[in-house]
Amino acid sequence: ENPQSSLRKWRKLGGEDLDPQTLRVKIQDLEERLNDKKESLLEKELILEEVTALSDKLRQQAVDGRQGTMELSQKVNVFQSRIKDVTRKMMATVSELSMHQATAHKLQQERDEISDKAI
Questions:
Q1: In 10 A of CB 6, how many CB atoms?
Q2: pLDDT: which is higher, 58 or 7
């Protein structure tokens, strides 16, 4: 490359270079900012880990709760079925009792009539 060539491949920029002490101060400032950002990143990563662990725990509790709810629902269905069966049997027994009471009442009336005729 020839800087003297007719093609302008480079140009001189305005401004001035800072002295080494100023550059060291800027570098130190940038390193401090970088360290602060790294520390902030580590804190955020720790928070993320905690939140992730808690959300996983809650998700597992929700799954367990759904399983428990399903089991309870099945038990409720079984008990409702038993209640229906027992209610049906009880109604049949009450009907039988009513028939026996009617028969007993009729027989009592017949007995009373026969006893009145015998006297």
A1: 5
A2: 58
Share of the chain above pLDDT 70, in %: 92
C-alpha–C-alpha distance, residues 83 and 75, integer Å: 12
- From CA 79, how far away is CA 84, in angstroms rounded? 9
Q: What is the DSSP letter of 14?
A: P
Q: How far apart are the first and last CA of the chain?
A: 152
- pTM of the prediction? 0.49
3-state SS assignment for residue 3: coil
H helix runs in the chain, sequence order: 20-118
65-84: string of b/e by CB count within 10 Å (b at 16+)? eeeeeeeeeeeeeeeeeeee
Q: In the structure encoding, which two tokens stand for residue 59, read together?
A: 């998700």
